[in-house]
């Protein structure tokens, strides 16, 4: 019997916002499938711990990066290519929430969410696509949200940014397909993370009532779909949006 080869064997990947949560799970899944991963995040302590958890400097690196800054994103890719080789996969996952109703939301809360999610994803897509075009192939995966499909109360900023990521994904996919660079998006629903588990129980139960599969998703269930889109299994897919929601609000 031959040795099993991972879906991302020898691939070099960058995952933003991967020091913890879903991003870290994506990085862990990529490493398991043979990739070497650079984590781009603003949390230096968690980033260093993530590198250790993933297997050390031969497999993973951490670069402090604010995705709102295009030059910082470029520097992450420079580090990835210098350490491991040509960039093959880029995941725009970095994000945060500043929830409030429109009446109570400050302009700063709106601007910050748009900057991190939408401009951050644009910066990552732009830099990654440029390198991948030169290499002759690549896969970019953008993390949107169910909130970008349906709009959720208290998330005019987040829903707008996550819907914008879908438009960005489709437009970018059309621009770079001729160079064999694919751009796809994932829309997670209710995923069990420390952030979501901090919700008031009433809100959690309300959301659970909307999910036909009757449970929250696990970070690994998002990561496996990101892996699929990043791998050659999805070689004929670009500009698509995959929902990982348990059927919620389909």
UniProtKB/TrEMBL annotation:
The reply on keyword DNA damage is no
Q: Which segments constitute the Ketoreductase domain?
A: 11-184
Task: Write down the EC number.
Answer: 1.1.1.100
Q: Pfam families, per this entry? A: adh_short_C2 (PF13561)
Q: Which SMART domains match?
A: PKS_KR
Superkingdom of the organism of origin: Bacteria
Keyword Iron carried by entry: no
User: For this UniProt entry, which residues form the secretion signal?
Assistant: none
Molecular-function GO terms, alphabetical: 3-oxoacyl-[acyl-carrier-protein] reductase (NADPH) activity
Which controlled-vocabulary keywords does the entry list? Oxidoreductase
User: What Gene3D superfamilies has UniProt attached to this entry?
Assistant: NAD(P)-binding Rossmann-like Domain (3.40.50.720)
Q: Which family does it belong to?
A: Belongs to the short-chain dehydrogenases/reductases (SDR) family.
Protein name (Swiss-Prot/TrEMBL): 3-oxoacyl-ACP reductase FabG
Which lineage?
Answer: Bacteria, Bacillati, Actinomycetota, Actinomycetes, Mycobacteriales
């Amino acid at each position: 019997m031959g040795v099993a080869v991972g879906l991302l064997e020898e691939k070099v990947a960058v995952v933003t916002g991967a020091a913890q949560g879903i991003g870290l799970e994506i990085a862990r899944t990529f490493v398991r499938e043979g990739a070497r991963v650079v984590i781009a995040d603003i949390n230096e302590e968690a980033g260093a711990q993530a590198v250790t958890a993933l297997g050390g400097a031969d497999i993973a690196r951490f670069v402090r990066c604010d995705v709102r800054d295009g030059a910082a994103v470029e520097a992450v890719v420079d580090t990835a290519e210098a350490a491991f080789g040509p960039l093959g996969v880029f995941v725009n996952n970095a994000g945060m929430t500043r929830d409030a109703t429109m009446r109570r939301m400050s302009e700063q809360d709106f601007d910050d969410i748009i900057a991190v999610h939408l401009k951050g994803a644009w910066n990552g897509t732009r830099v990654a696509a440029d390198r991948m075009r030169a290499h002759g192939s690549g896969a970019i995966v953008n993390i949107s949200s169910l909130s970008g499909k349906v709009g959720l109360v208290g998330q005019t900023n987040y829903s707008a940014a996550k819907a914008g990521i879908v438009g960005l994904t489709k437009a970018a996919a059309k621009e770079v397909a001729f160079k064999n660079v694919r751009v796809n998006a994932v829309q997670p629903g209710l995923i069990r993370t420390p952030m979501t588990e901090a919700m008031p129980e009433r809100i959690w139960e309300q959301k659970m009532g909307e999910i036909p599969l009757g449970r929250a998703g696990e970070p690994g269930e998002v990561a496996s779909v990101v892996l699929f889109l990043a791998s050659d299994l999805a070689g004929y897919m670009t500009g698509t949006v995959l929902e990982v929601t348990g059927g919620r609000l389909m």
